[in-house]
Specification:
With 325 residues, the chain is mainly beta. The chain folds into four domains: 91 residues, Baseplate protein-like domain - beta roll fold (Phage tail proteins - horseshoe like beta roll fold, Roll), CATH 2.30.300.10; 83 residues, Baseplate protein-like domains (Phage tail protein beta-alpha-beta fold, 3-Layer(bab) Sandwich); 80 residues, Bacteriophage T4, Gp27, baseplate hub, domain 3 (Elongation Factor Tu (Ef-tu), domain 3, Beta Barrel), CATH 2.40.30; 55 residues. The protein contains five helices and 21 strands. The strands form four sheets. Strands 1, 2, 3, 4, 5, 6, 7, 13, 14, 18, 19, 20 and 21 form a 13-stranded mixed β-sheet that branches. The protein has a three-stranded mixed β-sheet with strand order 9-12-11, with helices on one face. A three-stranded mixed β-sheet has the order 16-15-17. The N and C termini lie far apart (54 Å). This is YqbQ/XkdQ domain-containing protein. InterPro entries: Baseplate-like_2-layer_sand (IPR023399), YqbQ/XkdQ (IPR056937). It holds the Pfam family YQBQ.
Length: 325
């Protein structure tokens, strides 16, 4: 086996490796989900040759590959049956503690990384690297899920500095916020299947910048798209002394033509949500720079492969929670 699937009994008890019992296993993530998921189906003999795993509340699953921990998280579901020897398990990483905890915060003129560090400290969440946004934001959150608070603050910063951020957890369970890359250090040269979908369902190709009184300041638009599809307009209210041009341009980029690829390829644990990849697939004829919006890594019958959702746009996180101060 090229991996270890470790189950640790509640309260830091015995840890056992059940990799030899795995029938199929999946490790997955998405830009829409803060927590990554691990699920597995085990074949546990009923003849007494193997001590059954301790599938109790409080147990932890850990996935290690080549000596590196790529996932750790609490066991959330376990299903057994008296009719067969199969056991289904699922776990979420510590992103669950951001999703399932709600906080009451008011931040005024602080950087997102400062706010994220304070939230993590309040809830005892280990912290890795938090991207330095370089701008200050203000927002109040009366009883809002912690992941939505952090994603909102970094999203607001992205509207100012034009950068894109991803909130996630390291394999060993530390919170990190990373700036999504603008160029690719990874490439895919061979695929098993490629599905290409383009979509303008939610297209908005024009942004009207208006004063707080409603007067039109100017329009920022995608002229080619307007010519093809007609004007579909979004309105941004510009405060006195501000220039909403960057925000308008970002809106056009995030609400333009959407092109998504579903790519099946050989497994590579580096191909995870948020990373940029250069696709050079001679079979489908599709090539270019793409960002991974979703990934599912599967181990089955001794094979390791992954299915990726790729986007040719590096989209801003559109999570918006709380309200203005």
């Amino acid at each position: 086996m090229d991996y270890e699937l470790l189950l640790t009994a509640p309260s830091g008890g015995e840890t056992r490796d059940f990799a030899q019992l795995v029938q199929t296993m999946s490790w997955s993530g998405s830009v829409r989900q803060t927590a990554r998921e691990l699920s597995a189906t085990l074949a546990v003999p009923r003849d007494g040759s193997v001590t059954p795993p301790a599938l109790r509340e409080g147990a932890y699953l850990t996935l290690r590959r080549a000596g590196e921990t790529v996932f750790t998280g609490p066991l959330l579901t376990a299903t057994t049956s008296s009719q067969d020897s199969l056991v289904d398990l699922s776990a979420l990483d510590r992103g669950r503690f951001l999703v399932r905890n709600e906080g009451w915060y008011s931040f005024s003129g602080v950087t997102p990384e400062t706010a994220a560090a304070a939230i993590a400290r309040d809830y005892g969440i280990p912290v890795g690297t938090l991207a330095a946004a370089g701008v200050s934001v203000s927002r109040k959150f009366p009883g809002v899920a912690l992941d939505k608070i952090i994603r909102t603050l970094y999203g607001l910063a992205g509207e100012q500095n034009g950068k894109r951020y991803l909130v996630r957890f390291t394999g060993d369970g530390a919170l990190e916020v990373v700036e999504k890359p603008t160029s690719a250090s990874l490439s895919i040269a061979s695929t098993m299947a490629v599905t290409n979908t383009w979509d303008i369902t939610n297209l908005q190709n024009s942004v009207a910048i208006r004063t707080q009184e409603g007067a039109l300041v100017r329009r920022v638009e995608d002229a080619d798209s307007v010519a093809l599809n007609g004007r579909l307009e979004h309105v941004i209210t510009q405060r006195d002394g501000e220039d909403a041009g960057s925000e308008a341009q970002a809106w056009l980029e995030d609400n333009g033509l959407q092109q998504n690829l579903t790519v099946e390829t050989l497994g590579d644990p580096r191909l995870i949500t948020g990373e940029a990849v250069l696709l050079r697939d001679t079979g489908s004829g599709v090539s270019g720079l793409f960002w991974i919006d979703g990934d599912t890594h599967t181990w089955k019958n001794g094979q390791y492969y992954c299915k990726l959702t790729l986007n040719f746009r590096n989209l801003v996180d559109d999570t918006r929670a709380g309200s203005e101060l």
